[in-house]
Every structure is written in structure tokens, then in C-alpha cells.
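Notes from hallway chat w/ T.B., transcribed later so I don't forget. T.B. wanted the structure written out for a chain they're using in a teaching module, and asked if we could keep both sequence and C-alpha cells in one place. Agreed to drop them here.
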Amino acid sequence: MKKAVIVAGALMIACRPGVAQEIKVPILAPLTGYISLEGTSQRNGAVLAVKNAPAPLQAAYESFDTATAPENAINVMERALSDGDVKAVVGPILGVQMLALLPLAKENEIPLITISGTAKVTEMDNPYVFRFMADDRVAGEVQARYAVEELGKKKPALLYQTNAYGQSGREVLQGALKNMGAPLVFEEGLEVSLKDMLPVLIKVRDSGADILITRVHGGPTALILKQARAMGLNIPIIASSTMAQQSTAALVEPSELQNVCAEATPAPLYDDREPIQKFRADYLNEFDQEPDAYALAQYDGVMMVLDAMKNGAQDAEAIRKALAGNTYQGLAGEYKSDGTGNMVNSGLIICYDGASRTPRQVKVYDHVLNR
């Protein structure tokens, strides 16, 4: 027997003219703690999708802060599921929280929408999880290819967070770089609370590395860049998608971004397609800040759920089937499940010039993995 399900953030939608049917979709996001920059973008993208629900749907929302502990996410989702007839849940971007929520989603047979990059999220044989952003397998492959094939580097160093997100990226990059004939010459895990990056950056320098690759969150990324440049470590740096956020770039001076690139997905800052720029204008009007790739991906994920509802998916199982079997053209690109819930198999590289905080798109990678 299924558990009754709980509300953290809710969409209320009238699905047919004259017949008001309440549909609740909780929005779970880490709005405080070390991943609050990413979590706020995630939450805002979901909110904007709710507000732009396709006609004739009418929607309202409520969002909840999961902070960073896995048990926080579990408690919020349990409350959300127990409150009413939930059709889908927007899960937090933080991988360790998503992993904790997978059993709940499977037990309650509720689609769980995420933009978490942690590879393991879609490796647990769970038919209820759907990821709308490139996972670590795609992202790590993109970082490795650009470092070796485009920049010609052969002695990479890697810094990664010690949590699920960083460990997932580490595993992918170790294998990808080795397969390309450029095995890591140095690697070290960083606690998310670490503030002094100088000791580990000295190790990077002394290793003889000719490029530094990072899989860390936004705040730690900024600290690495600032302290690397202050100590004169001027080798190229290829960061994770956290460096594609304006909120991360705002933490460093433009000059500290010299020779810095990042793996990313489409975002308004460097993608001038008209629909994406319309999204940017709407986002700026709503939140008075620039949207990033996380906001755009989360917007597309929620819009695919709403599109399924608009086209007749009236319960959680119908929504799950639509997400698993349909192809959806979002703003950032086309989404289609690979059979395990990965909806994206492409990525790109952006680079900064050291004169501004606005990056340029330099390389696009389509069909990255053979899925």
C-alpha cells in the first residue's frame, strides 16, 4: 500500500475548463548552506515555470528549503507527500539529498524531477527519477576532451568535493583522462567547509600539472580561483558548471578569470537564441537577477511535466510514462530519456577572457555518451 504523500511546494492546476482539479508538485531546493547559490537558481527556474504554465493550466506554487542535510530533504518530502494528491516532485540539486529521496519516490511511485549532476542518481534502477541537466558522466567527459583534445594538456590535476557530487565527478574524470592518454598527476578531495585553498594549490603547482580541473561548488570554486591567481598559479583551469553561474563569477575579479573555462549547458548569458533571451527577460523581471544554466534547466524540467499534464497526463503514473517515453523540445534543447532517466546527452565549454565576467561559448559537444 502506498504511503500518503506531503507538500513542500505546490502547483494547483485546473486541468479542464469548469472542472477545478488540484495538482500539487512540491519544489524542494537547498536555499541555505554551501550550495545556496545553485539552489536558489534551481528554485527560481521552477517557480518561473509554474508562473508560465501553458494554457489552459492555472498554477500556484510553494517552495521549501532543504538546506544541505539528507534528512532535511527526506523530512520535507515526507511532509509534502502526506498533504495530498502529489503528481510529481521537483527534487533538490544537491546529489546527496537526491540519493536519499530516491527510495521515497520509488515507494510512493512519484516522478522526481532533478538537475543534480551526481551520476549515481540515475544508476539506482529507479524508474521515477528524471534528470534535466548533463550528469557527471557527460560533464566530466566534456572537461576531459577539452583539456586534452583542444588545449593539448597531458598532465592534469583534479580538485573535487568529498561529497557525492565531487566523488562522482572524480570517478568519471579519472577514467576519461586515462583513456585519453593524460592520467591525473595529482588529485585531492576538499571538504565543503574548507576556506584556505593555498596548501592544496601548492601541491598542484609542485605536481607539475599543466592544467587544473575542478569539480567543486560555487563558493569553493571562487576561493580556488582567487587564491590560485594570488599565488601565481597561472595554468589553465577548467571548472565545473558552477563557474557558469553569474553568482559565482561575481565572487571574483575579472582578472582572476583569465585562462578559466568551464563545462556548461545553454544559459542566457552566452546563448542568444530568441526563446532563451525571452526567458532571460521574464526571469529578470520576476527575480531582478540574471538567470543561469541551472535556472534554465529546472525551468525546462518543470515545463515538461506541465506539458504532460496539459496533454492529458492526469496522475503520477501517466506523468512518469510521458517523461520516460516522450521527446520534449525545451528552451535549452531537446530532452529524451535514455531509459534510466537521463534526459540530456550534450554539453559545452565556456571561457572567460580576464577582462569581464561574461564568458563566451567556445565548444559544443553533442551525443557525448553512447546511450
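Follow-up for T.B.: Residues 10 and 24 are 4 Å apart (CA to CA). Might be a good example for the class.
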